[in-house]
Write a structure and sequence with these properties.
The chain has 660 residues and is α+β, with helices and mostly antiparallel strands. The protein is built from twelve helices and 36 strands. The strands form eight sheets. It has an eight-stranded mixed β-sheet, with helices on both faces. Helix 1 runs parallel beside helix 4 and helix 9 runs antiparallel to helix 10. It is globular, with a radius of gyration of 25 Å. It starts with 5 loop residues before the first helix and ends with a helix. The N terminus is likely disordered.
Length: 660
């Protein structure tokens, strides 16, 4: 150790670490040869445990757990030795709602868990998502519906939770029975979690489509966004009563971030994220003058991706940022010290993630993993130094080092520098490998060094996998993100193609053995590559993709509004020219097309239209293209069976056209 880390660090480093954490501390190669080649079914498994949340007195954990083809929400008792996890909710049917998904959960006190659910429903022929909140008492086993009576569609936005006394929440919801004039203007109700009794605190207001409260339960801010012209309006007041005043009313510049208060500080100040210097950073904002103050945290290359407030919701606790890996920069001294100790123990920044803590911060729940390992969850007692292993994300792979992952950089043909994530097969030399180019979705998203659900199984099959953060990717600042405008299907595709040239020049891959695969925007990019560059790619695998951009923008004007749809509509100067389905009669690389019938983000009509066009052009089903429609899948692959089918069909297509 090269620095002093204090008594807390001595406790943790002196503790008897579980096998998994100790192996992580030994370095990435500790268990590299421990496992034989794993089947695709192992990679397709849903996590054995996910998103665990520790209650206020460390007597229970709420977490998703794998149960066959799905994950169920469970409570894991910590105060009852030998007790099994209790299943309290699952995706499916709930009351009169069908196709329900459990979205999130949080403890309001040691016994009561708040659960947010979502279900698609029909509104005048359009599919919309209905949300609701309920509570579950782990002692009495009672479920209480919170704010369901009197809610129309949206009733799942919890603004505030009490920290003492009888459990109460503030809930923003659309009120039933108010006609279409207030559709989209929510009210705020205060609800007793134990009884479900409710009272209106803020009625619907014409210029407000969302509300925000401070840590004391005062509704301090209302916001609205005009879907057609892009104008954002923010109303604010200094306390819990009195009139609101307008502090922001402007059209947001594309790829900019308006300084909307996220954490209310004492003394008429707030913390905001702003991109006025080119990258998202955290600043103080004077709410009287609306002038930005000191920069609290920023990075010279990367955007801040989020803020975390303290328990009282009146101070900054941490800032999330993704460099090569996702990290949390802690401002709380105790959490900062714990993170430093875990980083040293687990092998460096980004390997250990603080997930949850009890009210006293005596017990800390954390996750340890590497980019080549799913890892596991642990519970650390800061008073005794005891560390308890809670479970692996995958009970077969555990903490084994699978296929190695690293960040690379290469030059695009116009001189731009592209960062990319490269995953190499662990079971063969990194020389003249077959390659899969795997563009991410979005395109306003990014890839980083983390366990990847698709690159790992593909590498296990023997392929090198590259994930370029092509121009337009988020997280690298405003200018890089804005370079997506006019470049869909053009320079953004060049960035993908140039990764092949770079890796071939390095001797890592064989440029004549390349396929492309992706989902959502990545599905579009894969189809565009098959249509645009069949000489470069031996095959393409496209999932949930946009294949006709003009049709998608027409759909998106309903989905995002006139202004929001322009993010796609202006993304290419000639939309039809870069739409693969409009060029089905040209030469294509063989393409596998997969789509979920219940996809609301990119409608299945996109895939069906592409298939119809390919057939009309004379291309042969099963040879030139293959179409698989998954009847229960959405845009997000929530079921293990759909994940496995996607991987297995991809493997078959690769074996036929680009065998490893």
């Amino acid at each position: 150790m090269n620095r002093r880390i204090g008594m807390l660090g001595a406790l943790l480093l002196g503790a008897a670490l579980p096998v998994g954490l100790a192996a992580h501390a030994q370095g990435a190669g500790a268990t590299k040869a421990a496992l034989p080649k794993q089947p695709l079914s192992e990679f397709a498994k849903l996590p054995q445990i996910g998103s665990p949340r520790l209650n206020q007195n460390a007597t229970a954990i709420a977490a998703r757990m794998r149960n066959g083809d799905e994950q169920v929400l469970t409570i894991i008792p910590l105060d009852q030795p030998g007790a099994k996890p209790e299943v309290i909710a699952r995706d499916g049917t709930f009351g009169k709602l069908d196709n329900v998904r459990v979205m999130s959960w949080q403890w309001i006190d040691p016994d009561n868990l708040l659960i947010t659910i979502m279900a698609p429903t029909d509104l005048n022929g359009d599919r919309v998502d209905a949300t609701r909140v309920l509570s579950y008492n782990r002692r009495t086993k009672q479920r209480t519906l919170l704010g369901w009576d009197g809610t129309f569609l949206q009733g799942g936005n919890v603004l505030w939770m009490s920290r003492s006394g009888p459990p109460r929440i503030l809930l923003s919801r659309l009120a039933a029975g108010r006609g279409t004039e207030r559709l989209g203007n929510p009210e705020v109700v205060e609800i007793d979690v134990a009884t479900g009794r409710q009272k209106v605190v803020i009625p619907p207001t014409r210029d407000v489509t969302s509300w925000a409260a401070d840590g004391e339960g005062n509704v301090r801010m209302g916001a609205s966004y005009n879907r057609d012209n892009g104008r954002t309006t923010i109303l604010y007041r200094s306390g819990g009563s009195g009139p609101f005043r307008t502090i922001i009313k402007e059209k947001q510049e594309r790829y900019s971030t308006l300084p909307v208060p996220e954490i209310f500080l004492p003394g008429e100040k707030a913390l905001v994220v702003s991109r006025h210097e080119g990258r998202n950073a955290v600043y103080e904002l004077d709410l009287k003058t609306m002038e930005l103050g000191r920069k609290v945290f920023g990075d010279a290359k990367y955007d801040v991706s989020g803020m975390l407030s303290n328990r009282d919701d009146n101070a900054l606790e941490g800032v999330a940022i993704t460099r090569n890996r996702s990290e949390m920069m802690w401002f709380d001294p105790l959490l900062k010290e714990i993170q430093a100790v875990l980083d040293e123990t687990a092998g460096g920044p980004g390997m250990a993630t603080l997930v949850s803590a009890d009210e006293s911060r005596k017990n800390i729940l954390f996750h340890v993993a590497r980019p080549d390992s799913q890892g596991g969850y642990y519970l650390f007692n800061t008073a005794t130094g005891d560390t308890r292993h809670l479970g692996w994300l995958n009970d077969v792979m555990k903490n084994a080092s699978m296929n190695p992952v690293r960040t690379i950089s290469y030059k695009a043909r116009d001189g731009q520098t592209i960062d990319a994530v490269l995953t190499l097969p662990r079971l063969r030399p990194a020389k003249a490998l077959p390659l899969i180019v795997l563009p991410h979705g979005g395109p306003w998203a990014r890839d980083a060094e983390r366990w990847d659900l698709w690159s790992q199984p593909l590498a296990e099959l023997g392929y090198a996998v590259v994930q370029p953060n092509f121009r337009g990717s988020s997280g690298f600042g405003k200018a890089w993100e804005a370079m997506s405008d006019g470049n869909w299907g053009m320079a953004m595709q060049d960035d993908l193609d140039d990764s092949v040239r770079h890796l071939a020049a390095e001797g890592i891959v064989d440029a004549k053995r390349v396929c492309v695969m992706g989902w959502s925007y990545g599905g579009y990019a894969a189809a565009r590559a098959a249509q645009r560059n069949p000489e470069l790619y031996r095959c393409a695998i496209a999932g949930a993709g946009v294949y006709d951009i003009p049709r998608m923008t027409a759909y998106d004007r309903n989905y995002l509004g006139e202004y929001g749809s322009k993010y796609i509509g202006s993304a290419a100067g000639r939309l039809a020219d870069v739409s693969p389905a409009r060029h089905a009669d040209s030469k294509w690389a063989p393409i596998l097309i997969v789509h979920g019938a219940k996809d609301q983000r990119v409608p299945v009509a996109q895939a069906r239209y592409l298939v119809d066009q390919l057939k009309a052009s004379g291309k042969v089903d099963g040879k030139d293209f293959k179409y698989i429609e998954q009847p229960n899948n959405t845009h997000n692959l929530p079921f293990e069976s759909d994940r496995l089918q996607w991987l297995e069909e991809a493997a078959k297509w690769l074996a036929a056209h680009n065998p490893a």
